[in-house]
Structure formats: structure tokens, C-alpha cells
């Protein structure tokens, strides 16, 4: 057989699958097939800090940054999936042809980039029984079918708010979303997105409220083995309009989706920033025994008082333990990049603790 014939035959046998494979070993471009019992689902927003992840625990990385072939090869070498980000304006995919075209585009992109599925992150307001409500369910069903058929072993996940109770006006058909997707990623953070009571700074993810959200999903009979708990590796920095003697920080009224007040009054800060700021704070780390969360107050350089609420290994520990006790599929975080991955020994210790608490404590 001539070299040319051999080349043609090889291309035919490989089905073009390893064309342009950027990895050192072509088999690393194969989609990940193996399921692991416990999911550790990491959102990656770009850059190279993924090199410092604890890869012995990571099972899925959702690529929310720019496509990084080096990340794909590395994830595959560690048996971890790399999945696309999927977002589309729901009004545009009520139309079946538009929906099919969108799904095809995503499957083709995933194949071209040797990826292992898609994370659907729509977060749009939807009224129950509206055309968008039906279209969303159809989108998840059809996306899962297309991916599973065309990329064997691929994973289709869907991000939901901390509770299925129309949070942020997301009145989705959660039962069907649970049925058709491989995983539901519950975003147990931004839980003060709609503040109906006193307009004050509170925890990003109070323990009781967080766990109550899972009980609501489980009450809908969503398979616990499809539910991944999402925890925050960030907190909220609020500028206090006033700080009461009891330490209550009242915040500006910023409405959100019908609620008069919201965490949008604050700014999100990464754990790496928080760990530096707490040392130069007015109070040092305080603990709220009702919300089971740490916080502190600091003064900025123009004399304004701030209150910062966040999660650390102590507040995350009972959440991670609940993943085990409720028999959920796993845990994940927004996002993997926002720890301090520098060589500072204090930072290294803090970062290792944040990774290790994912598996419970
Ligand atoms: C199809 O999607 C495009 C955007 O991608 C949008 O402009 C158009 O209105 C949609 N068509 C229908 C019939 O929904
Ligand atoms: C913050 O303070 C703690 C305790 O005082 C100390 O161990 C740690 O090194 C400090 N962290 C940083 C980032 O300076
Ligand atoms: C990575 O995670 C594993 C499993 O939890 C743990 O045993 C190991 O110590 C971690 N590695 C580092 C560098 O923290």
C-alpha cells in the first residue's frame, strides 16, 4: 500500500476526529467517557490559574473564558471533562428551526474543540407556561439528545438559582430540566438577589436558606444524583449607609426583578481579595451564628464604612457535608480562578483548605 493510500485510510478510520488535535498525544482529544461517582464541577473564567487546581478532585471544567487548547489537553489527561458555555436569548429559540440551528452550532463547536459537553447558563426571567418556558425545556431536551448522540459520553448541565421557587422570576419547568439534563448545577449564592425585608447587608449563602433550597429541589423528585451543589468562592462588599450599634449595615435600595432591594447594592469580591482585606479591617473576622457565615467591617481610604460577607472553610464545611448526607452528585464553585494561587505560603495554605473542604470535613 502506498503512503498516500495509507494516509487516506488512516484519515478515514479516524473519521477526522483527531485532525488538528492540539495535544501531545492524539488520544487526549477523545471525549471523556468515564463517569466518576462524585462530581467536582469547576467554572473556569480564563487565564492560566487552572494549572494550580487540585486536579485529583476535578471532574468537569466549564470553560467560561476563551478556549484554551492546553486546558483541554490537561483536563483530558486527568480524566476531567471540559464543557462549553451555552447561553442564548430564549425568545430567539422559541422557533424550532432557530433552536435546532443553535444546537447544531454548539455540537459542531464542541467537536471542533474536542470538548465533552455544554453547560447551559441562561439565567433569564421566564413566566410559567409561556412560550419561552416550553422552549427552554425543549432546548435542554434537544441539546442533551444531540450531544449524547454525537459526542458519546458527553455531559449537558443546566444552572439554576438556589431554589426552584421562581427566584429572580426564573419560573422554569424544573422537573423536566432535571429529567432531560445530566446535571443541575444549583447556584447556592447570590441568595440576597431579592431582599423583601430590611434592606441590610447579609450573607451571600446563609446555611439554612441554602439547605432549604435543596430540600425544595428534592421535593420535586429531582434525582439527587443529578444535583450538584454550587458554592461561592467570592463574597459581597457593601458600602454601609449607616452601621448600627449592633453592627447592622444598611445598604442602598437597588431593586431587582420585582424586589425593592438586592445584593446588586454590593460588589462581588474574590476570596483572594477578602483574605487580604480582612487583616486590615476594623473588626477582623466576625461570625454570624444565625446565618452561619463570616463577615467583617472595614473603612476605605475616603472614610466610608464597608461590610463584607463571604464564605470560608468554616461556613463551607456544613454545606459540603450536606452534599454527602443528602446523597447529591457533587459540588462545584463559582469560580475556580479566584483563589490566591501565588507562592505566598499563607495564601497556599488558605487555597488548599478551600479545595479540600469541597469533599467535606
Ligand atoms: C432567530 O434567531 C435570531 C438571532 O440569532 C433572531 O434575530 C431571529 O429573530 C430569530 N427568529 C425567530 C423566528 O425567532
Ligand atoms: C493575616 O493575619 C493572620 C493572623 O493574624 C496571619 O496569620 C496571616 O498571615 C495574615 N494574612 C496575610 C495575607 O497577611
Ligand atoms: C488534593 O485533593 C486531594 C483529595 O482531597 C488531597 O488528598 C490532596 O492533599 C490535595 N492536594 C493538595 C496539594 O492540596
Automatic annotation (TrEMBL):
PROSITE patterns: GH18_2. Residues 1-361 form the GH18 domain. GO terms for biological process: oligosaccharide catabolic process. One of its GO terms (cellular component) is lysosome. It is found in: Lysosome. Residues 1-19 form the signal peptide. Keywords: Glycoprotein, Glycosidase, Hydrolase, Lysosome, Signal. InterPro entries: Chitinase_II/V-like_cat (IPR011583), Chitinase_insertion_sf (IPR029070), DIAC_cat (IPR047898), GH (IPR017853), GH18_Domain-Containing (IPR051887), Glyco_hydro18_cat (IPR001223). Pfam families: Glyco_hydro_18 (PF00704). SMART domains: Glyco_18 (SM00636). One of its GO terms (molecular function) is hydrolase activity, acting on glycosyl bonds. Involved in the degradation of asparagine-linked glycoproteins. Hydrolyze of N-acetyl-beta-D-glucosamine (1-4)N-acetylglucosamine chitobiose core from the reducing end of the bond, it requires prior cleavage by glycosylasparaginase. Belongs to the glycosyl hydrolase 18 family. PANTHER family: DI-N-ACETYLCHITOBIASE. This is Di-N-acetylchitobiase.
Amino acid at each position: 500500500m502506498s503512503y498516500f493510500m495509507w494516509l487516506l485510510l488512516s484519515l478515514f478510520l479516524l473519521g477526522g476526529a483527531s485532525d488538528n488535535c492540539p495535544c501531545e498525544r492524539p488520544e487526549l482529544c477523545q471525549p471523556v467517557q468515564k463517569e466518576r461517582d462524585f462530581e467536582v464541577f469547576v467554572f473556569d473564567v480564563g487565564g492560566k490559574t487552572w494549572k494550580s487546581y487540585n486536579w485529583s478532585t476535578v471532574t468537569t471544567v466549564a470553560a467560561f473564558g476563551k478556549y484554551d487548547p492546553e486546558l483541554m489537553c490537561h483536563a483530558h489527561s486527568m480524566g476531567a471533562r471540559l464543557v462549553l458555555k451555552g447561553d442564548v436569548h430564549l425568545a430567539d429559540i422559541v422557533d424550532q428551526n432557530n433552536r435546532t440551528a443553535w444546537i447544531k452550532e454548539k455540537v459542531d463547536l464542541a467537536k471542533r474543540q474536542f470538548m465533552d459537553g455544554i453547560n447551559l447558563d441562561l439565567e433569564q426571567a421566564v413566566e410559567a407556561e409561556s412560550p419561552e418556558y416550553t422552549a427552554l425545556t425543549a432546548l435542554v431536551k434537544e441539546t442533551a439528545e444531540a450531544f449524547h448522540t454525537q459526542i458519546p459520553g458527553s455531559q449537558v448541565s443546566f444552572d439554576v438559582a438556589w431554589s426552584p421557587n421562581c427566584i429572580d422570576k426564573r419560573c422554569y419547568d424544573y422537573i423536566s430540566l432535571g429529567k432531560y439534563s445530566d446535571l443541575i448545577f444549583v447556584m447556592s449564592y447570590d441568595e440576597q438577589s431579592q431582599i423583601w425585608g430590611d434592606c441590610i447587608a447579609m450573607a451571600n449563602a446563609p446555611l439554612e436558606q441554602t439547605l432549604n433550597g435543596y430540600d425544595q429541589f428534592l421535593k420535586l423528585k429531582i434525582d439527587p444524583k443529578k444535583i450538584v451543589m454550587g458554592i461561592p468562592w467570592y463574597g459581597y462588599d457593601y458600602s454601609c449607609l449607616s452601621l448600627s450599634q449592633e453592627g447592622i449595615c444598611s445598604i442602598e435600595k437597588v431593586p431587582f426583578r420585582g424586589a425593592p432591594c438586592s445584593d446588586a447594592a454590593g460588589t462581588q469580591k474574590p476570596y483572594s481579595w477578602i483574605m487580604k482585606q480582612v487583616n486590615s479591617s476594623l473588626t477582623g473576622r466576625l461570625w454570624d451564628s444565625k446565618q452561619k457565615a463570616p463577615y467583617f467591617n472595614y473603612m476605605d481610604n475616603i472614610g466610608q464604612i464597608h461590610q463584607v460577607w463571604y464564605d470560608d472553610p468554616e461556613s463551607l464545611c456544613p454545606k459540603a457535608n450536606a452534599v454527602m448526607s443528602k446523597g447529591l452528585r457533587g459540588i462545584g464553585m463559582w469560580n475556580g480562578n479566584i483563589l490566591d494561587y501565588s507562592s505566598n505560603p499563607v495564601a497556599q495554605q488558605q487555597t488548599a483548605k478551600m479545595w479540600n473542604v469541597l469533599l467535606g470535613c
